[in-house]
Design brief:
Helix content is 5%, strand content 58%. The chain has 449 residues and is mainly β. It has an 18-stranded antiparallel beta barrel. The two termini are 33 Å apart.
Length: 449
């Protein structure tokens, strides 16, 4: 790890610990806080440890808890490790991921569900929802290393790291602040002829200010800083920093339904490949809903512009959309749906931008208190801007990727879960070299206190 990377890693971790340092007591949300925020499951009330009690179950999670250790174990077999069109190579991969998360005040539910994607502007595939709470203050911190072993390709053995933090404070007069930070030291298979495993670091810092001047109106300001840094010199062209600002204005139509307008701006700067530097402008109108416990979500439609600093590339513009939805059909059956259409950053030097359309659907069916099953299906299309060159072939590149997989889940205890699953992946590209098929079978166990 270089000196610059060490400074970034340390700064990100220090910022997260600082976010979680406050220990204000739990209180009710002050007057003026509207109950119609952006849609997300309400943070449940935890339990404070009584004064004078020794450390016990209330600390480690059985009664709400501050500290929650966990351990994740997984073994999976794949028949195409590098996602190649020919000369497929199989392998068995073992992962061990211990970790812990802390909630202040105590809480039994993990408070942050977000993952960064290196090709997404500002690091997130879809916009962040505002976490709702009936407390004045809530803080959260998680850290987990992951040790990964390859049976037949031991040169890829590695340790990844993930850390995340969140802090929310609700002031008087309808003002609230939410701070989030996500840090990753991750590895990804490079699916080309080099058959590499690429290490990268990324960090997303986000601050969200929300103001409710009345029961009908709500205003929100978001700022995000996202940086991406690959370890290998061959990937230097992908290193970049994104700074983004979003402005929202909400109007409440019904107690659980709001319409909104959004303006978003992103400044995208590459460390060495400044030809890809650009600015994005997005304009949306949308609808948020949270109809009882059965249906909640967000849909927004709009227009986007991507303006490049270099005259070498043409500016791009067009339709943009996003959908996030959850629906509970019965107490034993529920579904989630995510869809998006927007520009993403290119992962290949031959293309200066990618127009991505994606759909991700999951269905969960519970059979008994201990047994349940899920099925997940996703499809996305990447349209690479600019002429693409592979050997003697020159032309436009468009990839369609599809994945589907069922899983069986067994939960014999509140703190123990075992999953057995399978998924099939397929990519169809204009260039045959990038086509692939993959079958993966996995078994995992998670212990979470």
């Amino acid at each position: 790890m270089t000196g610059e990377k060490l400074v970034r890693w340390t700064a990100a971790l220090f910022c997260m610990l600082l976010v979680c340092a406050s220990h204000a007591p739990a209180q009710e949300v002050p007057g003026g806080q509207s109950g119609s925020g952006d849609v997300q499951a309400e943070i449940p009330s935890g339990q404070e440890a009584p004064e004078g009690r020794e450390i016990g179950a209330e600390v480690f999670g059985r009664e709400g808890g501050y500290i929650h250790p966990f351990l994740f174990l997984e073994g999976k077999y794949t028949d195409n490790l590098y996602y190649t069109h020919t000369d497929e190579e199989d392998d068995f991969i073992t992962s061990v991921a211990p970790g812990f998360w802390i909630a202040v005040p105590g809480n039994r539910e993990k408070l942050l569900e977000a993952r960064t994607t290196p090709t997404s502007v500002s690091g997130l595939q879809v916009s962040r929802m505002k976490p709702q709470s009936n407390r004045r203050m809530q803080a959260y911190f998680l850290y987990s290393p992951e040790v990964v072993y390859y049976s037949d390709n031991s040169e890829h053995d590695h340790i990844s790291h993930r850390a995340e933090a969140m802090f929310q404070y609700n002031f008087d007069m309808g003002l609230s602040v939410d701070v989030m930070d996500l840090f990753n030291d991750q590895y990804q298979i490079n699916n080309n002829a080099t058959r590499r495993l690429d290490e990268y670091y990324d960090n997303l810092a986000n601050i969200m200010l929300t103001y409710d001047p009345s029961d009908k109106f709500r205003f929100r300001l978001d700022y995000s800083n996202y940086w991406l840094d690959y370890d290998e010199n061959v990937n230097d062209f992908r290193d970049r920093t994104d700074n983004s600002v979003s402005l929202y204005a909400f109007y409440q139509l019904q107690p659980k339904t709001s319409v909104f307008a959004e303006y978003a701006f992103a400044d995208i700067r590459y460390d060495t490949n400044d030809l890809f530097d650009s600015e994005e402008f997005r304009y949306y109108v949308g609808l948020d809903w949270d109809v009882t416990a059965k249906s909640r979500g967000r849909v927004k439609l709009g227009y986007m512009e991507k303006d490049f600093d270099s005259d070498r590339f043409s500016d791009e513009s067009g339709f943009s959309a996003e959908l996030q939805a959850q629906h509970t059909f019965t107490p034993k059956r529920s579904a989630t749906l995510t869809a998006y259409h927007r520009y993403t950053e290119s992962s290949v030097v031959e293309s200066y931008a990618v127009l991505t359309t994606g759909v991700d659907f999951s269905l969960m069916q519970r059979f008994t208190d201990k047994w349940s099953a899920t099925v997940n299906a996703l499809w996305y299309r990447d349209e690479f801007e600019g002429d693409y060159t592979v050997g003697d072939e020159i032309g436009e590149r468009e990839d369609d990727t599809f994945r589907i997989g069922p899983a069986l889940i067994y939960e014999p205890r509140d703190w123990l879960q075992a999953d057995l699953g399978y998924y099939y992946s397929n990519r169809d590209s204009d260039f045959e070299r990038f086509d692939f098929e993959n079958n993966t079978l996995y078994f995992s166990v998670e212990i979470a206190l």
